[in-house]
């Protein structure tokens, strides 16, 4: 049995800030582990890595490199197995 989890953009330090997607470090269909870095993004000239929130398989990447993202925006869908 499995379910899907939506990975969302985290809180970005101050209201009104957005971050730029620089690069996905994973591809659709790839297995990821919790805390594995999956995205590189830029905020105020600093680069940050976004980790996976769950063990699972990346089903869909919802934003592209170059996109500007806002807090709580949906970024990816991960399918996780439920025992």
SSE blueprint and pairings:
Elements: E1 2-8, E2 19-24, E3 31-32, E4 37-43, E5 46-51, E6 56-61, E7 68-69, E8 74-81
Antiparallel strand pairs: 1-8, 2-4, 2-7, 3-6, 4-5, 6-8
Your description of this structure?
With 83 residues, this protein is mainly β. It has one domain (2-81): OB fold (Dihydrolipoamide Acetyltransferase, E2P) (Beta Barrel). Helices cover 0% and strands 53% of the residues. It is built from no helices and eight strands. It has strands spanning 2-8, 19-24, 31-32, 37-43, 46-51, 56-61, 68-69, 74-81. It starts with a strand and ends with a strand.
Structural key phrases:
single chain; mainly beta; 83 residues; four-stranded antiparallel sheet; elongated; OB fold (Dihydrolipoamide Acetyltransferase, E2P)
Concise summary:
With 83 residues, the protein is mainly beta. The chain is 0% helix and 53% strand.
Helix and strand sequence = EEEEEEEE
**Low-pLDDT residue spans:** none
What's the level 1 CATH class?
Mainly Beta
Task: Give the total of domains.
Answer: 1
What percent of the residues sit in helical stretches (DSSP H or I)?
under 10%
CATH topology: OB fold (Dihydrolipoamide Acetyltransferase, E2P)
Number of helical elements: 0
What average pLDDT do the residues reach? Answer: 91
Query: What overall geometry do the principal axes of the alpha carbons give?
Result: elongated
Specify Rg, calculated over alpha carbons: 13 Å
Q: Oligomer, anyone?
A: single chain
Could you tell me how far the N terminus lies from the C terminus, measured between alpha carbons in angstroms? 7 Å
Query: For the report, how would you describe the main beta sheet?
Result: 4 strands, antiparallel
Strand order of the largest sheet: 1-8-6-3
| Corresponding CATH superfamily | RNA polymerase II/Efflux pump adaptor protein, barrel-sandwich hybrid domain
Strand content of the residues, in percent?
over 45%
What is the structural class?
Answer: mainly beta
Tell me the number of strands. Answer: 8
Shape-level CATH architecture? Beta Barrel
């Amino acid at each position: 049995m499995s379910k899907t989890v939506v990975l969302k953009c985290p809180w970005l330090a101050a209201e009104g800030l957005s971050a730029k997607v620089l690069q996905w470090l994973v591809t659709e269909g790839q297995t990821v582990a919790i805390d594995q870095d999956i995205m590189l993004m830029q905020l105020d000239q600093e680069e940050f890595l976004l980790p996976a929130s769950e063990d699972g398989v990346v089903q869909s990447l919802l934003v592209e490199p170059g996109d500007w993202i806002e807090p709580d925006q949906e970024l990816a869908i991960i399918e996780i197995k439920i025992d």
